[in-house]
Amino acid sequence: MSLEPDFYKKPLATLSSEEWEALCDGCGRCCYRTLLTGRGKRTRLHYTRIACNLLNLKTGSCSAYSERFSRCAECTHLTIRNVGKCDWLPETCAYRRLYYKQPLPDWHPLITHDADSTRKAGVQIQNGVHECDINPDDWQQYVIGERGAE
Fold this sequence. Notes:
- By secondary structure, the protein is α+β, with helices and mostly antiparallel strands.
- It has five helices and four strands.
- It has helices spanning about 15-20, 70, 95-100, 110, 115-120; strands at about 30-35, 45-50, 130, 145-150.
- The relative contact order is 0.23.
């Protein structure tokens, strides 16, 4: 099945599973671990460059995509029902952006028609490391950004 041009402009709830999957820009950022610190209004979400062990750090693709939920307990099955609650998703994420009625970034592969545009735009996390290679006590050293409570 081929996708309609501009299918991503339709309401998310009407997308087919193929269209839903095609929204992913391939940045892999959702596969990087986050840390929460603080409480209440002082809660901070810290993004790290520590990746799930299944993530291919060069391509931003899951090495076991069809088995990811059984192989990684932390892997989130993103759906129209939960995307609005996944506030850890990066602000560039197509699912998040479309859920909040924002346009796709101009570098998104659905806009550029170039499967490599995410990498070319520098959106993928640089110098990622797999979580199996990091001592959990050292995670704070791998923080690359943060966001406050929303």
